[in-house]
Amino acid sequence: MKAQVIVFPGSNCDQDVVYALRHVVGATVETLWHGEKELPSGTDLVVLPGGFSYGDYLRTGAIASLSPIMDAVHKYAEEGGLVLGICNGFQILTETGLLPGALLPNKTLRFICKPCYLRVERNDLPFTLNYTKGQIVQFPIAHHEGLFYLPENELNELERNNQVVFRYASVNGEVSEEHTPNGALNNIAGIINKKGNILGLMPHPERASEKLLGGEDGALMWQSINAWINKAGV
């Protein structure tokens, strides 16, 4: 697998993703500066990592969505390429229109950094093959704007289309407002586009990819992507 991790001014999780991909699945990983205008040929996965792109002074992900490389990411995604946006990367995907919705300030209006339980809603995607539907996993979150929002009619459409991939939950899988750390509507932690090749999520799988970090639930995502790509290449 050949992956590109896009680096914006202020990205701070790019090397975490690089490490996870290299050490969990042995991927060939390159970092690509946001000012570039093309993706290298043979790219199997594009990752928009977490971090405070451009300091997020205007609106989270808004300025990064206008970076030169995003035109190439758009084209790559439209052609079916796999794109993963984590935390700030998820925010960038919504700002570019590659994913629906918006990420608003947490209901506490404070930065939240802690481990969270998530319920896996789909395991038929390139990103979730190695999970089981309904599985409870634990990833950490670290954000100030993580409240997923959509107008009610669009939120209902998202649910009807089965585009929710991860929900915040209790350790027993209960989904309720009590178990949503940031107030996200419908406990939404991660969503997919209709085509199934663009995933955005607020929690950080790269920070849950080794026992040393407290858990390996995130490793299943990298293994899923690798398995999908290897199968597609046969």
Structure description:
The chain is of the alpha/beta class. Helices cover 23% and strands 25% of the residues. It is built from five helices and eleven strands, in the order E-H-E-E-H-E-H-E-E-E-E-H-E-E-E-H. The chain has helices at residues 14-25, 69-78, 88-96, 152-160, 219-232, and strands at 2-7, 28-33, 45-48, 82-86, 102-104, 112-120, 136-143, 147-149, 164-168, 188-192, 198-201. The strands form two sheets. Strands 2-1-3-4-11-10-9-6-7 form a nine-stranded mixed beta sheet, sandwiched between helices. Strands 5-8 form a two-stranded antiparallel sheet. The protein is globular.
Q: Keyphrases for this structure?
A:
234 residues, alpha/beta, globular
Distance between the termini: 13 Å
Query: Helical percent range?
Result: 10-25%
The mean pLDDT is 96
The run of helices and strands is EHEEHEHEEEEHEEEH
Instruction: Count all strands and give the number.
Output: 11
- Shape call: globular
Main pleated sheet: 9 strands, mixed
Task: Tell me the Rg in angstroms.
Answer: 16 Å
The secondary-structure class comes to alpha/beta
Strand order of the largest sheet: 2-1-3-4-11-10-9-6-7
- Total number of helices: 5
As a percent range, the share of strand residues is: 15-25%
Low-confidence stretches: none
In short:
The chain is α/β, with parallel strands linked by helices and 234 residues long. It has helices at residues 14-25, 69-78, 88-96, 152-160, 219-232, and strands at residues 2-7, 28-33, 45-48, 82-86, 102-104, 112-120, 136-143, 147-149, 164-168, 188-192, 198-201.
Give the helices and strands, then pairings:
Layout: E1 2-7, H1 14-25, E2 28-33, E3 45-48, H2 69-78, E4 82-86, H3 88-96, E5 102-104, E6 112-120, E7 136-143, E8 147-149, H4 152-160, E9 164-168, E10 188-192, E11 198-201, H5 219-232
Parallel strand pairs: 1-2, 1-3, 3-4, 4-11
Antiparallel strand pairs: 5-8, 6-7, 6-9, 9-10, 10-11
Helix pairs in contact: 1-5
